[in-house]
Amino acid sequence: MAVKIQTMLQEAVALQEQGDALAAEPLYRAVLAEQPTNGEASHGLGLLLAQRGDHAQSLSLFQAALQFQPRIAQYWLSYASALLAKGHPREAQLVLVRGQQRGFGGPAVNSLLRTAEAALMPTQADLMVKQGTAYVLQGCMEEAISAFREAIAIAPDHSEAHFRLGSVLSETGRVAAGFEHYMKRAALVHGGREPIHAKSQPPHRTKHDREQSAYLAERHIAPGFHLEDGARLQGPAVNPASATPDLVDRWQTSQPQMVVIENFLTVEALNKLRRYCAGSTIWRRNYDAGYIGATPEDGLACPLMAQIAEEICSTYSQVIGKHAFRYLGAFKYDSTLSTGTNTHADNSTVNVNFYIAPDEANLDPCSGGMDIWDVSAPPGEAMRRINSDEALARDFLTQSGATLTRVPHRANRAVIFKSDLIHKTSDCRFAEGYLNKRINVSLLFGHRPD
């Protein structure tokens, strides 16, 4: 058997040297099937895959070859080169330095080290992003916008510059323009990557990704970064008929200060947003309590969401007041593995939270929405401590004599409330099935001064 494997390996190497990668590849794979720790086969197959642009697989093969046969200098070089090709100059630099410490050096190593060091040097675009961030901290928003725009002019694919510009534009009233840069950042960061894999993910995330992959496969959508149609509607997205004349009175007189609104979105907007949340691979944030999240910079900032944010300000202007849009997030809960958010308050002025899962998915019509107490969290560091310590939050509520209001989940129901009120997701029990997962969208308006 060993002689046969060695013969196959020699034949694969010869074919590769002759430029016949198509014939060499199955021979390398056959060798690795019999001898998974064969460094030469791993390296040879890695070279073939790298030549055709499959850097993800070649990287793992070069790493394996180096692990199995660390005394071969070329394996250090190949692994470092693959790391550079995947955009990991710091890791490549560390590999090369370790190789030098083992006695491997020469012009090729020095050349790769110079390439890695050059990639780690801040560019002019990086410096403009740093300057723009400093302007934000000083409250000089127009200067920050100019700096971020200059960074993008220098480096159009600078994902951090797009993220920063998206944030500042949307927080200064230019929501649609800001969301375009959020979406550009999402495409740059996620568009060229392989699909998210379940390995090393929490169970609720693994389950979600498996179910979403099946949902997309049924619709003949290839794995990878995918966005559903999230275009603006010609008509309204926020239902103007729900902004009734008595709503402002209820807002001003309620204790705790909140209003519950039915039929919050138009039917067309609700259905389109449901499709977007189901089919878009934007759910990148993991939370320990069994739910996942989507953010603007990961793809939630579609034009439809910009339209919703803008129309909330105009339709509910007497509730939102002069508080500008600040940020938003969407949260998807597993039907059986979720325990909901922690008890907390938000560092903004007004929250708008609405639900999009169908009513029939909710197995407990008396719950599944939001618990809101009639007590505000103290500002500054005290609020941060409460938000990070569930026991402390519960003690604070008890000592304050807080009264709970529970708003059950209803499809297309919104809750608008003062952000500093302590609140959490109610206990929820939803039916199994990918399209039955509880989803809420939360938008923050204004800043709460510390």
Write the layout of secondary structure elements.
Blueprint: H1 2-17, H2 21-34, H3 39-51, H4 55-68, H5 73-85, H6 89-101, H7 107-120, H8 124-138, H9 141-154, H10 159-171, H11 175-190, H12 203-218, H13 247-253, E1 258-261, H14 267-279, E2 285-287, E3 291-294, H15 303-315, H16 317-320, E4 325-333, E5 350-355, E6 370-376, H17 381-388, H18 390-400, E7 404-407, E8 414-418, E9 421-425, E10 438-445
Antiparallel strand pairs: 1-8, 2-3, 3-4, 4-10, 5-8, 5-10, 6-7, 6-9
Helix pairs in contact: 1-2, 1-3, 2-3, 3-4, 4-5, 5-6, 5-7, 6-7, 8-9, 8-10, 9-10, 10-11, 11-15, 17-18
Question: How would you describe what is shown here?
Answer:
The chain has 450 residues and is α+β, with helices and mostly antiparallel strands. The protein has 3 domains: 2-120, Serine Threonine Protein Phosphatase 5, Tetratricopeptide repeat, CATH 1.25.40.10; 131-190, Tetratricopeptide repeat domain (Serine Threonine Protein Phosphatase 5, Tetratricopeptide repeat, Alpha Horseshoe), CATH 1.25.40; 203-445, Jelly Rolls. The protein is built from 18 helices and 10 strands. The chain has helices at residues 2-17, 21-34, 39-51, 55-68, 73-85, 89-101, 107-120, 124-138, 141-154, 159-171, 175-190, 203-218, 247-253, 267-279, 303-315, 317-320, 381-388, 390-400; strands at 258-261, 285-287, 291-294, 325-333, 350-355, 370-376, 404-407, 414-418, 421-425, 438-445. The strands form 2 sheets. Strands 1-8-5-10-4-3-2 form a 7-stranded antiparallel β-sheet. Helix 10 runs antiparallel to helix 11 and helix 17 packs across helix 18. The longest helix has 16 residues, at 2-17.
